[in-house]
Amino acid sequence: MALLSNTAVLLGKELRTEFRSRELLTTTVVFILIVIVLFSFTFDPTSDESRRFGSGLLWLAFLFAASLMLQPCFLREQTNDTLSALRLSVSDPFAIFLAKLTANTLFLLLTELFLLPLFAMMYNVPVVGVLPWLVLVFALGSLGISIAGTALSAISAQARMRELLLPLLMLPLLTPILVASTEITKGLLDRAPYVQWKGIGFLAIFDLVFLTVLWLFGEYLLEE
Amino acid sequence: MTPPSFSPTGIRFEKIEKRYGGLYALRRVSLEIAAGECVVFAGRNGSGKTTLLRIAARLSRPSSGTVTFVNNSGVTGETPPAAGFVAHATMVYDELTAEENLLLFAKLQGIAAPAARAEKLLWEVGLEERRNSLVRTFSRGMRQRVAIARALLNEPAVVLFDEPATGLDPQGVGWLAEKLRGLRDSGRTILMSLHGESEISNLATRAIRLDAGAVVADTRTGANFRSILTFANA
């Protein structure tokens, strides 16, 4: 119970500080927007071409945007050593992770859904019919990126070459989730859309396993 | 006189060692701090003052040795009953207001009436009129006031101050000394690290000098008391 109430309080703090500064949302929206627009103008793909590589383009943009978003996640807590204050205040340190990864997932999902109509328009791919499925894949994929990314952000924040370390650790670790999400999205963008249940199951299991690992060992990541 | 809302608590450090790789930050430090003592840790940079305070606050784990907290009835435990920690960094969010910061930490600590507690502390540290201002607009002295209010939210029996006067002007140091005097007189156990003699160090009832992670002097009274503090500047 204390875990949930602490998480809710911390999530409120994360949302309040972000919507006050809008640093993360602005960065990620602009980044994904540039990728989508640039590729569209450079390759001018037909609808069939977009269906083939559009999903890969989308998830690559999401992944790099997420690495931008996740970098300051724990770095912000170092400015005034607020992480120490949080560690002294919460009854379960997992609440710190849970709040941060929930906030990161929400920010990432919000960015993805905000830019999806633009993608559909510029790449001539209808998404309305499969929107609920796309939202599910985006949610599961973003959750996986956020869980692993938040944990790695806590590790890299204490390292010397922190700016380099996070993407270096994150990209190989998230390759399976990237492949699965891309494949499912590709199926959903097909002329005859289909749902890859195996892929969705894989994403759900990936999220669950990483969340459990974080719950078991997260406390050690916050120690000095 | 109203009884204190906390149980006076002492601290026992037993053979504390802290190593970072091959480097010793603390070497077999053993100390018995009685409830209600006001202890100053003096020493050069890197002598182990901050490490010792962070271990006492449970922010850092010793490589070996134990820290126990002893209350008046002799009950001991490894978890501090309620320790407030004021570090060199303010440990509050610049993007939140003074009141939002206190409310956040009060809620996390499970304080029964967080709004009332935050309001009382804002008044105590003289920030009631700036309660809705973002902390990033505050001076160093005002930030330190928010930091102290945060540390006192749960009415701690033990308060740990790591170089609390750093960056404060003489007026700020005077205010801090008054605040510390009030905490000391209320029976709280105070551990603080300081550089040199000041208005704040004069409040101490005991001075301990650390050098290269070891206790090299420990006194409660006498001429040695002052020399421990002033030697810190050497």
Explain this structure to me?
The complex is a heterodimer of chains A (224) and B (234). Chain A is mainly α. Chain A has one domain (2-222). Helices cover 85% and strands 0% of the residues of chain A. Chain A is globular. In chain B, β7 (158-162), α5 (170-185) and β8 form a beta-alpha-beta unit. Chain B has 234 residues and is an alpha/beta fold. The model of chain B has no long low-confidence stretch (mean pLDDT 87). In chain B, the strands form two sheets. In chain B, strands 6-7-8-3-9-10 form a six-stranded mixed sheet, with helices on both faces. Chain B has a domain at 9-82 and 188-234: P-loop containing nucleotide triphosphate hydrolases (Rossmann fold). In chain B, α2 (98-108) packs across α3. The A-B interface holds A 2, 5-6, 9-10, 13, 16-17, 20-21, 79-82, 84-91, 223-224 and B 54, 57-61, 83, 85, 87, 89-96, 100, 104-105, 107-110, 150.
Q: What tags apply to this protein structure?
A:
heterodimer; A: 224 residues; mainly alpha; 8 helices; globular; B: 234 residues; alpha/beta; Rossmann fold; 6-stranded mixed β-sheet; 4-stranded antiparallel β-sheet
Content of β-strand of chain A: under 5%
Distance between the termini of chain A: 27 Å
* Biggest sheet layout of chain B: 6 strands, mixed
Enumerate how many helices of chain A there are, as a single number: 8
β-sheet strand percentage of chain B: 25-35%
CATH homologous superfamily grouping of the domain at 9-82 and 188-234 in chain B: P-loop containing nucleotide triphosphate hydrolases
Order of helices and strands of chain B: EEEHEEEHHHEHEEEH
What's the total count of β strands of chain B?
10
Largest interface: A-B, 24 and 25 residues
Uncertain segments of chain A of ≥5 residues (pLDDT<50)? none
Low-confidence stretches of chain B: none
Structural class estimated from helices and strands of chain A: mainly alpha
Identify the overall geometry of chain A.
globular
